[in-house]
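Collaborator request, handled under Task 6.
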Amino acid sequence: MDWLPLLSTLTGAAIGIVATLIADRSRWKHEDVKEALRLRLDIYTQYTTTVKALGQTLRALAEREYPSDDERALALREAFRDSGISIASERMWLIAPQPVVKASDSVFHCLRRICDGYVDGTTVSSPEDRSRWEARGTAAAKMRKLMREDLGVGPLTERHSPLLNDYNNPATQ
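Structure tokens returned to the collaborator:
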């Protein structure tokens, strides 16, 4: 019996199977990378929007009049707790690379200092308030830069939020 045609057929089949497995594995890895990128984009978007919304809420609550300092403190602390920042932060800790986690944690603590400052009676737009907001802006800019690098997006050429002084200057809006 001539074994050569049988061996050729089996070799061809083996090569075809191996090539298909390699192609499938490559496709699977590519899809896995794309899905991980989508997940990080979702988490980064959730975190940055939560940070933005919480900042606006804290400022609005701090500008309101309250019957007592205790009611003001309660409103501010509830806003911080109910904002979803803790959940968004935990998602960052689970998924994001360490530099992004560190930067997002810095933003979290800046917001905590802003909230605590308002609870302690700091007035909106006072020098201490401006300093805390500028620190938050700097931390947020660093965080966004790291997020963009992680997502493979180019750097921004302008600041996301104007400086606090710019809010009082109509020409910059």
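The cover message to the collaborator said: "The two ends are 88 Å apart (CA to CA). DSSP finds five helices and no strands in the chain. Please let us know whether this matches your experimental observations."
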